[in-house]
Amino acid sequence: MQIWLTLLVVIAASGGLFYTGRSRALAITNGDATTLHSKPAFHGGMLLICGILPAAFVFLVWTFVSRYFADASVASLLGEEFKALTELEQGAFLRSAFGFSQSQNIGDVTAVELTAIEGYRNFYNFSNLVVQLIMAGLVIGGGYLAWRQIRVDLRARQFVEGAVSAALIAASGVAILTTLGIVLSLIFESINFFQKVPFFDFLFGTHWSPQSAFEGVGSEATDRNSEVFGAIPIFAGTLLITTIAILVAAPIGLMSAIYLSDYATPRVRAAAKPILEVLAGIPTVVYGFFAALTVAPFLRNSGEAVGLSVSSESALAAGLVMGIMIIPFVSSLSDDVINSVPQSLRDGSAGLGATKSETIRRVILPAALPGIVSALMLAISRAIGETMIVVMAAGLSANLTANPLEAVTTVTVQIVTLLVGDQEFDSAKTLAAFALGLVLFCVTLMLNVVALRVIQKYREQYD
Amino acid sequence: MSVATDILQPSVKTANETVKMSGRNVSVHYGEKQALFDVDLDIVANQVISLIGPSGCGKSTFLRCLNRMNDTIDICKVSGEINLEGQDIYDKAIDVVELRARVGMVFQKPNPFPKSIYENVAYGPRIHGMTRTKDELDEIVTSSLRRAGLWEEVKDRLDQPGTGLSGGQQQRLCIARAIATKPEVLLMDEPCSALDPIATAIIEELIDELRENFTIVIVTHSMQQAARVSQKTAFFHLGKLIEEGPTEQIFTNPHHKKTQDYITGRIG
Ligand SMILES: Nc1ncnc2c1ncn2[C@@H]1O[C@H](COP(=O)(O)OP(=O)(O)OP(=O)(O)O)[C@@H](O)[C@H]1O
Ligand SMILES: [Mg+2]
After folding, report:
1. How many CA atoms lie within 13 A of A385 on its CB side?
2. Fewest beta carbons within 10 Å, which of A382, A404, A424, A459?
3. Partner-chain contact A366 B115, CB within 8 Å
4. Bridge partners of A122?
5. Strand B185-189 and strand B33-44: pairing?
6. Whether B114 contacts chain A with CB within 8 A
7. What domains, with CATH codes, occur in chain A?
8. Is B185 part of the contact surface with chain A (CB cutoff 8 Å)?
């Protein structure tokens, strides 16, 4: 109710500001809008921005700081009983009182709590009114100031365009800041982890069994933990499975892309491309049980037939299915870039007596290489990040092995298992997840950098 | 008129002419739209023939029929018969790849490969296995670039991308690329459209010199160029071949009013 009303008021105010600005601009020209430097709509936009922006700013600031003022005002109402509490308890008391103040039925509360609840209600009733009045004043005041500016030669367009570009910058700023925040939190939690487990023991240790981690402090815990948090087996597992997946996806995906773009008739292409893309739409958990229930038993049976021992959960099963999953990433993107190589290059090559396959190998693929590389990179990061298939088909046991027929586990799977269940947030197990996340992040980052370098080096310009 | 006739070449004797390629009843449709109507044209060996006519009259279309480049356009349908040394090139038994190796093409729009200048020229010789050693290949690349009048400008940067050259340089690069494969017939679609007078003169010299061993079909919008380089001229108008014959006769004594109007600049 409240929220709809607010929205309605905002829309009405914006519309009113815009309309006022526009008609004012029209009015001062006596109907000939061409004499204006900026079109009337820009004047409307300027009024809108000048009216809404300051009010929105006040609203945002108030949302962030109001709680602080509310707590202070309520605390000053309360007597000795409250002041006797420790700081932590005071915080908890205020939080619960605030929660009560937001709900309709309070139930049984003590007198002190009731005072606090009433205090919150009064504070917000009063302060919200004040803030709303201030905002209304800002809308009208800002709008009026802008309205007074409206002249024939007012550069309203520049103003509005400046505001728009500021909004665009702010939007990309949000994306960048979020990334930065995530990376920083990863780094800080990882630093916490590395205080419990030495960095090199984590990075180069060959034994991973966080279940037997030792909670506590002192050198005993550090010694123990430095032995069980050796991440090499799970890095190796990730590498193994990803490699298998790429070995499956890269040739199949690339070849089907070449077929689709240069050999298939338009009708086949129109039918086949969406079908390939459906592969990307299948939920990974479906791939997971396909891998666990169909591929893995098949591999084990055929392995037994030739005298190989294949464990029922194997890196090969997970890698194969993951490879199939990422085929559409390779094929669809590569198909697009191959298609965007201009026809004139194909003609030029054909006109010199080159066969179709020579043209593709010597002209099309080199020209499309940057795009193909980035398609592969996308596929690889998909494979590295994939969790479900591995849980179901490759298992959870952190074996250090290069044999694809054995069970292995990957970084993402371990992050999940470390974080499932009740955990102290600052236990070594939980923090290990952050460290793994950080390593994963660094690896993907490195892949991207390498891909960019490859693209820059081999980029062949055409137009 | 008189400008063109002054610089005419002595006409070629008609007695010992052998026909290299010939088109009979060639019609081309792009989808519903017909672009060429029953064209009959002989292309004589070791001669240069110019195709002239107003824009959109079907010169490029006819040229592309001669090495089946129209195959790459889905909506394009060619009917009639085109022979290369007596053999129908639209026959099922013909290998298009081999045909295009024999009938090379320089396109209207320069289309260098996104490779180095050297690799652009070496492309044809490489795929046809024309050379055994690197030295032989270097020799072909160098001489092709020289003959196309590009050598002096690029000799220090053979390893830089061909796409980084100027429009006119790209055009000459494409010519060098085409002559490096040593085709029997060379189809050139406005090869000098982006060239300055000096480069144009070099290319015209090249065409004249190539005539000794090759047969050349050239599309041009310049009457002077047609008069300077070609022994035969064919005039197209709205998809029809209006008139063809020895260049001298077309320019001095055209049989058709339309030809006369075109070469004197009244239509086009
Ligand atoms: N790929 C195509 N699809 C459809 N129509 C085409 C295509 N190529 C050419 N045409 C049509 O065929 C006709 C002849 O075109 P063509 O390119 O042969 O003209 P041209 O004589 O070479 O002209 P210009 O001197 O401008 O190069 C034109 O009307 C053109 O619209
Ligand atoms: Mg043309």
Report:
1. 12
2. A424
3. yes
4. none
5. unpaired
6. yes
7. 2-154 (no CATH), 232-462 (1.10.3720.10)
8. no
CA of B240 to the centre of ligand 1 (A): 13
Neighbouring C-alpha atoms within 13 Å toward the C-beta of A144: 6
Query: What is the model's pTM?
Result: 0.74
Nearest one of A145, A138, A100 to A119, comparing CA atoms: A100
Q: Express each pLDDT in B192-247 by its tens digit.
A: 988 899 989 989 998 998 898 889 999 999 999 999 999 999 999 999 999 999 99
CB-based burial, A200-215: b 16+ in 10 Å, e otherwise: ebbeebebbebeebbe
- Which residue has the least CA distance to atom 8 on ligand 1? B61
Q: How far, in Å, from the CA of B222 to the mean position of ligand 1?
A: 18
Number of CB atoms found within 10 A of residue A23's CB: 13
Q: Is B181 on the interface with A (CB under 8 A)?
A: yes
Cross-chain residue pair A354–B123, CB shorter than 8 Å: yes
Task: Return the CATH class of domain B19-110+186-263.
Answer: alpha beta
| Ligand 1 first shell, C-beta below 6 A | B 30, 35, 55-61, 73, 108
Residue B187: closest CA among B89, B255, B79: B89
Q: Which residues of B touch A370 (CB under 8 A)?
A: none
DSSP state string for A214-231: --S-SHHHHHHHHHHB--
3-state secondary structure of B76: strand
Residue nearest to ligand 1 atom 30, measured at CA:
B56
- How high is the mean pLDDT in each 10-residue block of chain A (463 residues)? 84 93 86 82 92 92 90 84 82 86 78 86 90 92 91 88 94 94 92 86 84 67 76 89 94 94 89 86 89 88 84 86 91 90 92 92 90 88 86 81 83 86 74 90 87 73 49
Q: Identify whether the C-beta of residue B225 lies closer than 8 Å to the C-beta of residue B44.
A: no
CA distances (Å), origin A327, targets A273, A281, A379, B4, B109:
12, 12, 8, 63, 37
Query: pLDDT tier at B7 (50, 70, 90 boundaries)?
Result: very low
- The three-point CA angle A65-A70-A71 to 5° equals 100
Taking alpha carbons only, the member of A318, A322, A437, A330 closest to residue A378 is A330
Report which of A359, A338, A368 is spatially closest to residue B123, judged by C-alpha positions. Answer: A359
Strands (E), chain B: 19-30, 33-44, 48-52, 76-84, 87-88, 103-106, 185-189, 215-219, 232-237, 240-246
Contact residues for A250 (Cβ-Cβ < 8 A; gap 6+): A330, A376, A379
| B104–A354 CB contact, under 8 Å | no
For residue A256, the distance in angstroms to the closest alpha carbon of chain B comes to 21
> Looking at ligand 1, which atom is closest to the CA of residue B33?
5
How many CB pairs lie under 8 A apart between chains A and B?
A: 80
Q: At what angle do helices B167-180 and B134-147 cross, to 10 degrees?
A: 130
Q: Which pair of tokens denotes residue A309?
A: 């021992």
Dist. CA B98 → ligand 1 center (Å): 26
Buried b (16+ CB within 10 A) or exposed e, A389-416: bbbbbbbeebbbeeebbbbbbbbbbbbb
**B180: amino acid identity, one letter:** A
Residue ranges of domains in chain B: 19-110+186-263
Q: Which residues of A touch B100 (CB under 8 A)?
A: 350-353
Q: How far is the CA of B17 from the centre of ligand 2 (A)?
A: 28
